[in-house]
Amino acid sequence: MNLTARFEQALLYAFQAHRQQYRKGSQIPYFSHLISCAALVMEGGGDEDQSIAALLHDVAEDQGGNRRLEEIETLFGKRVRQIVEGCSDTLKFPKPPWRERKEGYIKHLFSANEDVLLVSLADKVHNLRTIYMDFQEVGEQIWDRFQGGKAGSLWYFRSLLEIYKQRYPHPMVVEFERILSLLEMN
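Above: the chain sequence. Below: its structure as tokens.
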């Protein structure tokens, strides 16, 4: 895979969109999550469009909804827009209740294409990694950071795992399951 100036432009776009955000309960810039997701997509065999979508996967959901999707399509193309849209659990503001959004996202993944499944999987693998690392430091208190709490969050990740195993048996699914199992044991 060759990365072009489009990828560089997407890096800057993602950084500017999320520059004021931090990971939940930390002082870690949110941008670290985006570049980690893009790295996972690249390492998982993704192409440039998928890698760009990984950088931008939260822009519309967190930073402007449909207006951002239109910008993404103009700047990076229809395929990137479709992946970003497919990885968003809502474009509404204010956001609907947590459980409703997560149930909708799970249902959506049953028919999502492989582009969306790859970027979604990279996103969730990175989320689980950071949750597990933070769990090592703060213990059960980690779950207070999430609207679903421990039970809801583990339900959500377990539901996603089952979809990935059925629809997209990518090698990253093994890591996802391993980390989730470690969190479920505690």
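The chain has a mean pLDDT of 96.
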